[in-house]
From TrEMBL:
<protein>
    <submittedName>
        <fullName>LEKR1 protein</fullName>
    </submittedName>
</protein>
<dbReference type="InterPro" id="IPR038799">
    <property type="entry name" value="LEKR1"/>
</dbReference>
<feature type="coiled-coil region">
    <location>
        <begin position="6"/>
        <end position="33"/>
    </location>
</feature>
<keyword id="KW-0175">Coiled coil</keyword>
<feature type="coiled-coil region">
    <location>
        <begin position="63"/>
        <end position="97"/>
    </location>
</feature>
Amino acid sequence: LISSATKSLRMEMEMLEKKLQEAQMRLAEKDGDKEKEIQSLKRLISELEFQLTMEKSNNESFLDKLRKEIKHKSDELEKLSQEKTQLIHSLSQVQEENSLLQDTVRRECEERFELTAALGRAREQVLELRRLSGTLP
């Protein structure tokens, strides 16, 4: 009876040891799978961090280009504004000079008209004098 019980317990112990070994193997397998998954996730994190760094770098580069372009356009705008101001000033001077010249031409035309009228009167007087002197003995 003892021998049979011992044998039965040994068999049960062997079965339990097999089950324990199988459970340990499954656990080791699961640990291996988890370790692989952890390594895979670490690689993915590294890749994503690298991509993020590249994106940041590209964005900073793009922003620098935009800032330079904005600065350039701003400088161009300032230059064009100064040119516009100078042109408006020049136009104002030219308009003032034009007005002065028109006034001068108007006065000279009036003087010419007056001189022409005076010359016409003088001619008439000369003709009148010649006619009168021609009738005198």
